[in-house]
Amino acid sequence: MIIYNHADGQGNKEVILADSGDMYMIHNERYMVMELYHGNSYTESNPDGVQSGSGYHDIAPLMRNNFIRSKMVFSMQSFDLERTREDLFSGNRMMKNVAQLTHDIDSLQMDADAFRYELFNGVNSYFTYHMRGQVEVPSRYAEQHAQRQEIIRQNNLIKKVAKEERRLDSLAQNGTDTTGMMALFWEKQKSGKEDKEKVSDAKLQKISEGAKAAGAIVGVSGDSVAAIMDNAEGLLAQQEIEAPEQEEKEEMITPNYYADYSFEEAKLTEAKVDSLLLVKKRNARMYRSALSQSRYVKNTIMSQANKIKNRNKSRYGFQIEYQKKFAMSMACLIMFLIGAPLGAIIKKGGIGFPVLISIVFFIFYFIVSMTGEKWAKEGVVSAFAGIWAADFVLLPFGLFFLRQARIDARLFDTDFYAVVFDRVKQLFIKKKKKEQAESEIAE
Are the beta carbons of 412 and 346 closer than 8 angstroms? Predict the structure, then answer.
């Protein structure tokens, strides 16, 4: 017997040679014993100060032991059958019940809608001029965002109330009079909400007062302030239109070839010409900036779209698992409706032929169900249609076989189809004879 010890991972540095040996289990098979007879063990150790694999070729000491009987004991604990903790699989959708699946489906749908709201709400900030302010958040996502914010506010309020109740309980235990403190807490919460409303109203009031003050300075009546504020955007737009025209007029130089140019005029003319030559560079810089902004907008939208796609893909998986809870139970009943009547209808062939027919229906069910599940995962069809398609297709077969078994029909007997074939054949023969007779009469 030759045994190589690779426990340290350093190669064949420990070798055991023996003439014979025994292996057996002890202590309820928790330990394995290897008993060797008449042999030697060889151990090669590393030299002092030199680590294994360092590349040095120093002489390594070798230790040799001779034994008549040697016993080695190995623990078999790593081979024990231990149940895996359930919490490791609790997050898997296959381990969840109907209520948990419903909760997860709603959560994933809310996450996807939140990403859509962020996309529509933030897309206006990406446009500087074109389409700025034209992208509106759909009312569905805006309402859901408002509901989420309200839920968050209520949860925060509940936490504050619980914290305040614990504080008052601790004060009461210390002998402090807490009468009216909870009412004071609610007053603070109410006043805080009113303060926020007052802040927004104060901003509007400040804008209005500033407009009225400006009107008083320039001698405009208070009734005309609103008209001035309404026309502000029009005046700004008009200024933006007139400004380029003025700049063009300033940049245009009308040369006078009959006048003597001074040094200052010549210098000014040279500066104007240089500014005209730099227009292309300025335009190129603007184009690069616009291209960079467009790429940033594209990457942002694609990132949000991928997040929404991943959430929807996870939601499809949970919806499929939810529908499977009911569709698989219904499939057992449908298979029973197909298999049981087949045993009563088929009189010949023993049990083999009914089992063969049932296997054919099962393969058909498996193909249809797998195809529907794949389409449901990709979002081509709904989870309900993809999972229940196989049940809806096989249910009529089961009801048909059940009816045929109730009336004791010979559906799978060869004599039954032979009679039907003969009747069809006779119909064609009679039709042919009738046509021949009519042709003879016509002649």
Answer: yes
